[in-house]
Write a structure and sequence with these properties.
Blueprint lengths: L14 E4 L10 H9 L4 E4 L10 H15 L6 E6 L1 H12 L6 E7 L15 H5 L5 H8 L8 E6 L18 E4 L12 H11 L7
Parallel strand pairs: 1-2, 1-3, 3-4, 4-5, 5-6
Helix pairs in contact: 2-3
Length: 207
């Protein structure tokens, strides 16, 4: 966890960053440093195991446990999920009560409609990321609940891990395309980081 003083004119929620498959919280080193410099308090956690052997719903309970341990019950926060972490965090928001805690929710190159690359592994987490999987059908049937908060999907058309790249698009929330070359650069490229910072700065929706 890193901390930085809040901007004197803007009250900012703490931000939780959640990584994708085979990655750890270290993937956010550049983004975390940039957001911290801009005035956010940034938190990260390591999903274990991170190799797809566990279901994404099981990994989402790790997010829920982290939130309960680190944030006070009355503390709202903003959530960012990268790649597989975008689906893990969606499950937390849509199925584990996160909808009542999270105010701004951002996914980066998440396979919301699945990715053909997931056919390369029979591990449960990968099976759940396949197009038309039961897991995705369940999450997408009531995705409109994300309209209750500030939801943004950030993606690149040059993504060769999320195939097709348009799978990162959602019919709800705000769609932000950044022309970053390659999936792995989506948390390091200046344009992606600027898009995340902009989404985290959006005025909250009124009830």
């Amino acid at each position: 966890m890193t901390t930085s003083p809040l901007n004197s004119t803007t009250q900012r929620n703490p931000v939780l960053l959640v990584h994708g498959i085979i990655r750890t919280s270290a993937v956010f080193r550049t983004m975390s440093a940039s957001l911290t410099q801009l005035g956010w308090t940034v938190h990260t956690l390591n999903l274990k195991p991170n190799n797809g052997i566990l279901g994404l719903d099981q990994l989402a309970t790790q997010v829920a446990d982290y939130v309960d341990q680190v944030f006070a019950p009355e503390q709202p926060f903003d959530l960012v999920g990268l790649s597989m972490g975008g689906l893990v965090t969606r499950y937390y928001v849509q199925r584990l009560g996160g909808i009542d805690r999270v105010q701004r929710f951002i996914t980066i190159s998440a396979p919301h409609q699945g990715t053909r690359m997931a056919y390369l592994s029979a591990r449960l987490g990968c099976v759940q990321m396949r197009p038309d999987s039961d897991f995705l059908k369940d999450l997408n049937k009531d995705a409109n609940m994300l309209e209750r908060l500030n939801f943004t999907s950030i993606w690149t058309p040059w993504d060769y891990v999320i195939v097709p790249a348009s799978s990162s698009q959602m019919p709800v929330g705000r769609d932000v395309q950044v022309r970053v070359f390659a999936h792995a650069l989506m948390v390091r490229d200046r344009r992606s980081i600027q898009a995340v910072a902009a989404a985290l700065s959006e005025p909250l929706k009124k009830d």
